[in-house]
Each structure stands twice: as structure tokens, then as C-alpha cells.
Amino acid sequence: MATQSDRPRQSREHEAFLSSLARRRMVVSVARALILAAFVVLWEVAARRGWINAFVVSQPSRAFATAVSMARRGELWLHLGMTVGETAIGFTVGTLIGIVAAVLLWWSDLLSDILDPYIVVLNSIPKVALGPIFIVWLGTTVTAIIAMAIAISVVVTIMMVYVGFRQVDPDRVKLLRTFGATRLQILSKVVLPASVPVMIAALKVNVGLSMVGTIVGEFLVSKAGLGFLIVYGGQVFNMSLVMSSVILLSIVSVLLYYGVSALERAVMRTRG
User: Fold this and answer.
1) What is the pTM of this model?
2) Predicted local confidence at residue 194, as pLDDT
3) Would you list the domain boundaries of the chain?
4) ∠ CA(179), CA(183), CA(189), 5° rounding?
């Protein structure tokens, strides 16, 4: 049994531990910021001094000026909105379809055995090859771009979530079956709650894959969006436009990823 003299010492040790964690987080954040700043400064200096060809790789100041110019003309928000909107729709629909398909595979072992080789084949097919097919089927519209985003993300979701369902503690499942639980009760009371971390991990993967699908679709058919700007900038040899679009794409990707991470923290806090 701990004495009163032990408690202050434990409290001090706990405070020291929390302080060390806070210092580590600060060091990591500062190091990340310094690395990014060093990269940008080195890129700018190298372009200004002729160490690299600024016409080919542009430079941060030109890319920033290009983005500001597009923002003033109102074009930037149109392209950003198109890419973010298409990614969000593809991400949401692909995730929902993937989770529902994983539930169906878990529900029926027979269905799982039948469809397993087809899922493997679909996962192995380069999704970029499906782009022309979607264009023929759906036309040169936003629908084809969203279909591309869904196609890239849905199979990965199915595989990740289904594997997560199968890895749920079998003893817990047997316990519910012993008490006469139905398959729906087992799914809702054990399998889905236990698989929340896996589904969150699938969301983190999907947000990047959906962005890739959106950009590939914009490469092929779009007349707006960051992917369109990258292709157009390359065609007219405007590398500042290309680099500014790539930088904006990176920022959007990071924001989407951290949005999913914030959702993960909120879910985990709710689950205790």
C-alpha cells in the first residue's frame, strides 16, 4: 500500500514523464519545420544562383506568385474546390462501399470463398488502366473522375476491413454464440466495435488513394482542378504553374490526412 510520502514522488515522476513527452513533441515539430524551411530556402537560392535550371524546376517565389495571381483572378478557388470536392465524394463513397462489401464477405463464408480470387485480381490491376474505360462508359465528365477515385480506394478498403473483421478475438465471438446471439448482434456488438481502429486505418489510406484517383482522372478528362493545372502547365511549359499546383496538392493532401487523424482522436476519446 502506497504511503503519503510515495504519492508526491509518483506525482513528480509522472509530471517529469509528461514534460519529457511535451519536449519531444516540440523537438519533432521544430525539426519538421526546419527541414521544410531549409528545403524551400535551398530551392530558392539554387534557382537564383543558377545551380539548377529555374525554367525547368521553377522556384518557390515564382510558384507563390503564380498561386497568388490565380487567387486574385478567382481561378484558384475553382480548381481547388473541384479537386477537393471530387476527392471527398470518391473517398466517402469508396469507403462506404468497401465497408459494406467487407461486411457481406464476413457475413457469408461461401460468398467470401467465391469472390476472394476476383478481389485479388481487382487489387492487382493497375487502376490507371481503367481510366479510358470509365471515359467511354461515363463520358468526359466529373462522374468519370469520381469513378476513378472510387475504383482506386474501394478494393483496398474491402481487403483491409475484411481482414480486420476476421482478426477479431474468436473467443468473444464464441461467447456471444454460446448465449444465443444472432449474427447481426455479433456484428454490431463485437466485430464492428473491435474493428474501429482498422476502419480508421483504412480511412487514412483511402484519403490518399482517393486523391490519386482524382488527379489521374483530372489528367485524362477534366477541364478544372489541380490535375488539370499540372497537365496544362506542362503543355505550355509553365513550370511555375505546375509547381504551385503540386505544392497546393501536397497541402490539400496533408490537411485531408490530418482531418482523418482528428476524426480518429475524437472516436478514440469517445471509446475511452
Assistant:
1) 0.81
2) 85
3) 1-52, 60-271
4) 75
pLDDT tens-digit series, residues 127-144: 777 778 888 888 778 888
Residue 214's nearest CA partner among 71, 64, 92 is 92
How does pLDDT run across 223-246, given as a tens digit for each residue? 888 888 998 888 888 888 999 999
Helix axes 60-73, 6-48, angle to 10 degrees: 90
- Provide the pLDDT for residue 34: 94
pLDDT over 90 (residue 264): no
What phi and psi, each to the nearest 5 degrees, are found at residue 165? -60, -40
Q: Where are the alpha helices (DSSP H) in the chain?
A: 6-48, 54-57, 60-73, 75-107, 109-124, 131-138, 142-166, 170-178, 183-186, 192-194, 196-220, 226-235, 239-271
DSSP 224: S
Terminal Cα distance for the chain, rounded: 28
245 touches 233 (CB < 8 A): yes
Give the Å distances, CA to CA, from 57 to 46, 105, 164, 239: 10, 48, 43, 6
CB half-sphere exposure, 187, CA atoms < 13 A: 14
Predicted confidence band of residue 10 (pLDDT cuts 50, 70, 90): low
Cα separations (Å) of 152 from 134, 183, 254? Answer: 12, 31, 19
The span from the CA of 61 to the CA of 249, in Å, is: 17
Distances (CA, A) of 204 to 84, 153, 249: 16, 11, 17
State phi, psi for 176 to the nearest 5 degrees.
Answer: -65, -35
CATH architecture under which domain 60-271 falls: Orthogonal Bundle (1.10)
Task: Give residue 251's identity as a one-letter amino acid code.
Answer: I
